[in-house]
Amino acid sequence: MMRYTERLAPFVLALVMASAVACNDSAKGNDEADRPQSVSSLTERPLISIGFMHPVGLLITTKYRQPLMDHLILHTRYAFRALFNTDSEKTVGMLEQRLAEVCHMGVVSYLEADSEFGAIPLARPLNRDGEPVSYSVFVTRQASPLRSLGDLRRHSLALGSYHSTLSHLIPRHELIRAGVRLEELGSIEYLENDDAIASAVLEGRFDAGAVDELVAHWYEEKGLRALHVSAPVPSAPFVVRADLPPRVSQAVRDALLLLDFDGAKDREHWDEDLRYGFAPASAADYEPIRKIIETSGKGCERSCHVGKDGFSRVDGTF
Amino acid sequence: MTGSASSEGKPAERFSRVYAALSLLPTPLLLFVSTSSDIYLRNQALLQYQYEVLAPFAKLFALTLLVGVVVRALSVISRPARVLLWAYYLTGPLFLLFAFLRGLQGIVPGVNVLYETSAGLAFWPILLFVATAVLGPRLNRPSVVRAFAAFGIILLVYEGGTLLHNIWSAGVPTSSSVSPAHLPAANSRPLPNIYHLIFDAYQTDLLEHTLTDEAKKALGGFTYFPNNKAEWSQTFMSLSAIFAGRRYAYDRTINNFMSRAFDSEICVLYWLKSQQYQTLAYVTNNWDSRGRYLDRVVYHDAAARDELLPLNEESFWNVWLYSNTPPALRKAAMRSKWFGHLTEEDLEKLQEGRLLPATAPVTSYLGFKSLMATEKDLSPSGRYTVAHVIIPHYPLRLRADCSYNLGSSKTHILEQSQCALKLIQDFVRLLKDLGRFDDSLIIIHGDHGDTYRTKNGELTENARARSLDAVLLVKPVGKTGEGELEVLETRTSLADIPTIIMNSVAAAAEETSGPHLPPWLPQRSIVPFLKGEQIDSAETILNRQGFVLGEVTSATSEFPTGTVLSQHPSAYQAGKGIEEVSLVVSSGPPEGPDVMPDFVGRDDSEVTEWLARKKLPASSIRHVPHAVAPMGMVVAQTPPPGHRADGSQEITIYVSSSNR
Questions:
Q1: Among candidate residues A194, A226, A211, A206, the one with its CA nearest the CA of residue A156
Q2: Average pLDDT in the B19-43 region?
Q3: pLDDT value at position A44?
Q4: Do the Cβ atoms of B495 and B245 come closer than 8 Å?
């Protein structure tokens, strides 16, 4: 009785205000009878979850990632769905915990996953030039007097989290290559994601920041410019656990590799980091990055990847 | 209000007395029965259908009604009593108004003030006072008394009927109700008893942080595998892998894998039953559809009903109190002993009128105690007993000695882990006392880990993912309790458990002497069951158990290409002298013009082309909405691939009409 009284209240109110809301869902109900008997259907396929790290809103992300799911459904014997996480740590966790069979993750995250529980890179996305690489870009405001990394001395710099390849590991490596020690910077802060870094630079809170080339490109129109572009870095791979049956990982890899650069013009409605196609990936592709981490981050477990002085021992090629 | 009836003659007077009595019903019904029955019905499963928790509210109802009767009797001679009676009558309707306006909180601005501030709370007694003063005299009218009486009857019938109907119809999932005396007779061979104890979320780190020297001695005879891994981090996926003895191979849906793991030949229980084992389970209610090969299933909450009652009464009373106390008063109540222990999550649940999740570990503990109490009455051989307890799994309610508070209080993960270790030691001691320890196989393990990690010797929490490091302790048949816990660094998996079990059974059946050591992998031990596996998974399973894949032949079948159709030697034969296992695998459905292709996932243009070639009508294509598939993708077909498509069966192809 009491629950009805409480629940009744909003309805009574709604009546008093005469704000009935029409509901047209009933028109869709007739399709129920047309549902197929489960004889051979998509719902009977094993489900493969693909984890993505993406700090923007779920709705938009799902819309632009779904074409990839459709492609995989079409070219494999599995059903696919996209899962999202807003931080790279949790994306590694999804793979570790088997909540996702495949994860698109940053290079550092992949290497972490591999060292902790065994992971295999399947394929890596191509960029707008058709190369399976990415770049870390130092950005500054268009009116900024900064012209090179050397000019950053005594200026403030925004980087990404310790787990980020393009906004943390590589930028630090580039600074060392340019002969700039972190101690020489005016200040340095580690922000949540690339968007936050670019926004902070744009708003003048930092003199420069380092972000993924895609983010740098988006912010060009808003008033940022590239200060320095890194050496090419193998792009963020699609990764599986090492113990996933090879039959599954091979099927996913084959389907991804069907997406070539030539077909990119037909995929303009796809997310930009996936639309240009894929190249095969192997552990060897990421050895240079692994070496950077190993030489600079020994004894530094999961809280960081680089030592303060470690970069000076590493050359500049990936 | 009774004076006006005096002129209506004797029968009318009698009726008026009845009306007057019934008119007293609404207030206590609304205050105590409506409020408590609502919460009970929402939480009856969590309360193990113990309707006894309503007893205090029935008493309060009776007491309030008695007060009403007394006040009514006094009202004839006393004016203050008459005013009190009016207040009594109006309390019920005002309480309804109170609940009604509470439902508008968050919708109508300002309503919150009536509940969340002291001034707002003062409004209610003032309103009662004013209503009594203004409306009271009108309550004397017989028509009003009759209206109250009618409302009381309707309310009584509705609340009583709803409650009684639910109490009678809601089944208590107790057990499969086969008493030990009615279990199938144990095999005449001296098959070892198998004790399979599953401690939920018992991560290796937790055991290692609580393992004392005393415990190591108590666990003499056991081997501990610190490098053991669960196959999955969710309980029933993990349990499926355990009972099936294999990892999910993505050759079917997860749900299909999970159900097959408990109700088909891949389930180790199937093979134990084939050896005439009695199979018993002391488990949580979540096992209710997994008992096909279990002779008897005892649910913890059914086993511990009596001990759970005070716990449920306490919880229920507090939920009622919390749900019906205005927030302004609640803040004061929160400082009380009981509420002070609650977490934010607990409070949220209370606010929604739901019971605290306080009982899962406690119920498990009580159920496990009940298992120990009945052990002596059960068969000393030929029996497989599985127990699954939600310990040391969250929520943290048990202390190191497994004691717990009535109501709610939070302990620490290490305390709850100490409780798990204590239960293991108690169980081992019991088996030793009963003389059943030496001749039994005892397997104790977690089903998965938790979000804890050990760093620099300290246990830290909130890791990014649940660990797969699950405790595994094994005491082989024939090994005594001498010495202390041994540690073996071998890499093991919980999916090895069927092999360990069937190896012991096979060794016992062969009547070999001495300890039947489990097959610490890799070592050829016992031929695994491979039917239904994909060939690559079958080879992985064989290799893990020390066998190699022998001759592989193929045959057409309705099963997908690569599915194992049969094996030689057959499953669960002792592997002595066997190195290779030969398989017959499916080469898929036979091909030919009259065979249905696999269209699922393909574009509808391929179907159209095929239908045209077969001279079949385009009406065979039906467009259906689909949540996932893009427009034009085939989402289902009948008949399935490999079946005949020669016109003997109607062909229907379902194509997604979705256009995201």
A1: A206
A2: 90
A3: 84
A4: yes
Q: Which CATH class is domain A44-128+235-281?
A: alpha beta
Q: Tell me, what DSSP letter sits at residue A157?
A: E
Cβ(A281)–Cβ(A238) under 8 Å?
Answer: yes
How far, rounded to the nearest angstrom, does the alpha carbon of residue B358 sit from its chain's CA centroid?
13
**With b meaning 16 or more CB within 10 Å and e meaning fewer, what string describes A109-119?**
bbbbbbeebeb
Bridge partners for A102 per DSSP: A50, A240
Write the ipTM. 0.75
**Shortest distance, CA B636 to any CA of chain A (angstroms):** 4
Q: Which residue in the set B101, B598, B626 is minimally distant from A9, CB to CB?
A: B101
β-pairing, A102-104 with A47-53? parallel
- Enter the tokens of residue B442: 């005892």
Show the tokens assigned to B566: 């049969």
The 10s digit of each residue's pLDDT in B556-615 is 887 878 899 999 988 876 656 778 999 999 988 777 767 788 888 888 888 888 888 877
| Distance set, CA A149 to CA A137, A152, B157 (Å) | 11, 5, 82
* B523, B499 Cβ separation under 8 angstroms: no
* Residues in chain B closer than 8 A to A250 (CB atoms): none
Look at phi and psi of residue B313 and say left if phi exceeds 0, alpha if psi is from -120 to 50, else beta. alpha
The answer to whether residue A236 scores a pLDDT higher than 50 is yes
pLDDT confidence of residue B279 = 96
Q: Do B636 and A42 touch (CB under 8 A)?
A: yes
pLDDT mean over B381-391: 96
| pLDDT at residue A239 greater than cutoff 50 | yes
| CB atoms A10 and B626 under 8 Å | no
Contact B25, B156 (CB under 8 A): yes
For residue B609, give how far its alpha carbon lies from the nearest alpha carbon of chain A (Å). 18
More confident call, B366 vs B591 = B366
In a mutagenesis test of the B interface, which of A2, A4, A80, A250 is the best target, namely the one with the most B β-carbons within 10 Å? Answer: A2
pLDDT higher than 80, residue B90? yes
Top pLDDT among B336 and A168 is at: A168
- Rounded Cα–Cα distance for residues A65 and A62 (Å): 5
Which of B247, B630, B636 faces A41 most closely, judged by CB atoms?
B636
Phi-psi region of A179 (alpha: psi -120 to 50; beta: other; left: phi over 0): left
pLDDT attached to residue A238:
97
Residue that is written with structure tokens 């902070």 in the block? A200
Listed in sequence order, the DSSP H helices in B489-614 are 497-509, 535-544, 604-614
Question: Is-cis flag, bond preceding B226, omega within 30?
Answer: no
Q: Which residue has the higher pLDDT, B329 or B101?
A: B101
**What is the three-class DSSP state of B493?**
strand
Numbered ranges of CATH 3.40.190.10 in chain A: 44-128+235-281, 136-231+302-313
pLDDT digits (tens, 9 = 90+) for A281-311: 999 999 999 988 887 653 344 344 433 333 3
Find, in chain B, the residue whose alpha carbon is nearest to that of A245. Answer: B249
Find all residues with CB under 8 Å of A295, minimum gap 6, and list them: A310, A313, A314
Interstrand relation of B492-493 and B228-229 (parallel, antiparallel or unpaired): parallel
CB B248 within 8 A of CB B241: yes
Asked if residue A315 has pLDDT above 50, the reply is no
Q: Is the pLDDT of residue B459 over 90?
A: yes
* Cis ω for the linkage preceding B522 (within 30 of 0): yes
The CA distance from A124 to the nearest CA of chain B, in Å, is 23
pLDDT of res. A204: 94
Our separate counts of H helices and E strands in chain A read 9, 14
Q: Is residue A130 within 8 Å of A261, Cβ to Cβ?
A: yes
Does the reported pTM lie above 0.80?
no
Choose among A135, A133, A142: nearest CA to A220: A142
Q: Which fold has domain A136-231+302-313?
A: D-Maltodextrin-Binding Protein; domain 2 (3.40.190)
